[in-house]
Inverse folding.
């Protein structure tokens, strides 16, 4: 078979993070991509444009990012796994679509390759300034899932994971990547199809006359019927009852919002991933995500060489924030400080502070964007008494 | 008692929210008759609306129906259609929704010749939010936000659609329900981007602000001013307050150089690729 006709490009590749992300999506079964060009995410779209037509999929370049995110919601309701990718300026435009996706419980994946902001900012250079926008950017109160890859390999692995989570919990899942991870070229190993775990959304088994699109039962996540399945579903961004019909009253709204939040909160331990290294007896912990977790590795190693007990805590899923896990870590005996380097002026650090609740000192290592922290900055913060 | 359209309506959603005298009931009725006439299986039809009085239509029709966000019916429908080319996808929404906030999506979907039917109910104002002016409000017309008369020239929707590449363009009023029905059914059977503009009274807001005494008064006015002229140069079919209302199925063409309506069939796509291949050699 021609390489181009393969869905999973099993083997070792030397590719950048953007391309790895596109390959992860395709391997997960994504067959619809709508997007709008923007640095540093463009290579994802270009790879999808090249690959999808050979796999019976669709690539479409829309007129803007509002259209892109809305089109992937539409495609998802035709039963096709879908994705879009962008960077800050486009991510701002996508907030409306994220809300519609949350409210209508539409599985899809949205990639934000973060660059320096505000506004057009630093198009070609790294930042991690959109972390709180990812959490709260669309109006109303909701829960979201976001994953932060630290390498091209993780761009592949976590994109597959993002699709699985979106299918399982029926919501838009965000990949909060960054310019460095996206443009870094490294070895990426793509496994054999049999060893990839792929989850597909649960389809309804209820008969057409009894089906209620938003009757979720104890599993909290309702099974889906797609357009064209003959169920005559009605889907709306308005507050709706189990039939999917608009019902504008406080009780219906509270029930719906609570369920949308519970989907994530009840399953938080199953969703969140953290990676811990050297946490036993740690006196200092460096807590980071995305490229900043990668840049923290060397200073952590150097400080250990100097005899310090330093723990490294990587947040693979900053959202939902792994509250309980952080609380537990903050109780480690002998721990004095948690250092949070991030390429912003303190966003995830606020969450760490909230969960540590004064038990430890939380130190923000801010960075305005345009580059990563250098080794000395982080090392000094670790060694600083 | 049964109604011949029960099978196409969500009875459990009645009563609807529309005011008495509103033209939306006739517009919906004409649409349902056209659906019946078109013989397209209902299970393979989907209707997508944005937000507004017109946008509520998706909630009353018993087929797969999506009530999206304000202005976004067309991109949502584009995704739905391209991901499942077997669906007949119809957009049913208001003029503010499709042409103001959704205007960019409208022209681009027409340019791409996405295989969808867009039905736009033009009531010359924003109904849902209380009768403000918009891009279809005629010059000098009074609305909640143009209390001294609208200062901005409106879009000529049919001309805009044609200029953007629509392969079928028509305009009718709800005072011509049979012609409207026939026109919608043509649009439904057309491959490519088809556009039907329905002029419809909003007696509660636009009517009251512009000194119409009743919904009937507005319909009579439509009839009085109607000129059916399918050959008109669309540039000259602008709607003006109290002016002539030019109606007709203005455009009904085979797709031009753009070639094929989206989504492209696999065959066409391969042909394109092959041709390109030989040119390169
Ligand atoms: C982003 C956004 N802006 C504004 C609104 C408020 N809004 C709801 S409907 C509407 C206009 C509807 O007008 P039109 O599309 O002409 O439909 P009609 O109600 O006249 O049928 C507006 C502005 C909204 N829902 N969303
Ligand atoms: S406000 Fe106008 S458009 Fe809306 S339902 Fe009433 S009459 Fe119809």
């Amino acid at each position: 078979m021609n390489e181009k006709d393969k869905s999973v490009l099993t083997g070792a590749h030397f590719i950048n993070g953007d391309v790895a992300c596109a390959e992860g999506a395709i391997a997960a079964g994504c067959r619809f991509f709508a997007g709008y060009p923007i640095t540093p995410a463009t290579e994802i779209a270009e790879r999808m444009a090249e690959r999808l037509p050979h796999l019976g999929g669709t690539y479409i370049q829309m007129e803007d990012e509002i259209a892109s995110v809305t089109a992937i919601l539409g495609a998802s309701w035709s039963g096709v796994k879908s994705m879009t990718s962008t960077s800050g300026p486009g991510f701002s435009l996508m907030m409306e679509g994220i809300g519609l996706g949350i409210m209508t419980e539409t599985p899809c994946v949205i990639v934000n390759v973060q660059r320096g902001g505000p506004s057009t900012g630093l198009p070609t250079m790294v930042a991690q300034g959109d972390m709180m926008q990812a959490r709260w950017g669309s109006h109303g109160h909701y829960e979201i899932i976001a994953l932060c890859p630290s390498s091209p390999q993780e761009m592949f692995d976590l994109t597959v994971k993002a699709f699985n989570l979106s299918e399982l919990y029926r919501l838009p899942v965000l990949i909060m990547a960054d310019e460095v991870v996206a443009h870094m070229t490294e070895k990426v190993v793509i496994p054999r199809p049999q060893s990839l775990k792929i989850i597909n959304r649960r389809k309804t088994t209820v008969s057409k006359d009894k089906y209620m699109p938003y009757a979720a039962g104890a599993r909290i996540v309702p099974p889906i019927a797609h357009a064209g399945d003959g169920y005559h579903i009605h889907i709306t961004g308005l507050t709706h009852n189990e039939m999917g019909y608009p019902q504008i009253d406080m009780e219906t709204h509270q029930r719906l919002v609570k369920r949308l939040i519970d989907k994530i909160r009840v399953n938080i331990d199953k969703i969140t991933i953290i990676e811990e290294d050297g946490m036993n007896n740690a006196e200092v912990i460096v807590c980071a995500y995305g490229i900043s977790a990668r840049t923290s590795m060397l200073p952590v190693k150097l400080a250990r060489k100097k005899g310090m007990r330093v723990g490294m805590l990587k947040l693979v899923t900053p959202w939902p924030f792994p509250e309980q896990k952080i609380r537990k870590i903050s109780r480690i005996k002998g721990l004095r400080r948690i250092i949070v380097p991030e390429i912003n002026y303190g966003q995830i650090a606020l969450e760490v502070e909230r969960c540590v609740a004064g038990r430890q000192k939380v130190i923000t290592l801010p960075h305005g964007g345009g580059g990563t922290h250098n080794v000395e900055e982080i090392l000094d913060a670790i060694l600083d008494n | 008692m049964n109604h011949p359209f029960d099978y196409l309506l969500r009875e459990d959603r009645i009563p609807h929210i529309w005011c008495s005298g509103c033209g939306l009931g006739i517009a919906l009725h004409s649409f349902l008759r056209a659906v019946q006439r078109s013989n397209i299986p209902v299970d393979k039809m989907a209707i997508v609306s944005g937000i507004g009085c017109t946008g509520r239509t998706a909630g009353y029709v018993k087929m797969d129906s999506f009530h999206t966000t304000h202005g976004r019916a067309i991109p949502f429908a584009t995704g739905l259609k391209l991901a499942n080319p077997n669906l007949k996808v119809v957009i049913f929404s208001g003029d503010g929704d499709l042409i103001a906030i959704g205007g960019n999506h409208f022209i681009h979907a027409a340019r791409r010749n996405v295989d969808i039917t867009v039905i736009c109910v033009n009531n010359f104002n924003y109904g849902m939010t209380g009768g403000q002016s918009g891009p279809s409000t005629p010059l000098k017309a009074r609305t909640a936000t143009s209390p001294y008369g609208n200062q901005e020239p409106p879009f000529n929707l049919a001309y805009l659609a044609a200029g953007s590449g629509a392969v079928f363009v028509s305009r009718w009023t709800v005072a011509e329900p049979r012609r409207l029905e026939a026109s919608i059914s043509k649009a439904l059977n057309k491959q490519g981007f088809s556009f039907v503009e329905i002029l419809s009274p909003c007696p509660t807001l636009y009517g009251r602000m512009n000194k119409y005494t009743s919904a009937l008064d507005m319909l009579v006015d439509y009839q009085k001013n109607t000129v059916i002229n399918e050959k008109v140069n669309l540039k000259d079919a602008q709607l003006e307050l109290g002016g002539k209302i030019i109606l007709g199925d203005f455009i009904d063409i085979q797709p031009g150089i753009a070639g094929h309506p989206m989504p492209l069939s696999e065959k066409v796509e391969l042909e394109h690729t092959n041709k390109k291949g030989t040119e390169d050699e």
Q: What stands out?
A: The first helix of chain A runs from residue 17 to 28. Residues 26 and 228 of chain A are 24 Å apart (CA to CA). Chain A touches chain B at residues 31-32, 34, 53, 56, 58, 60, 62-64, 66-68, 70-80, 82, 96-97, 99-100, 226-238, 243, 245-246 (CB under 8 Å).
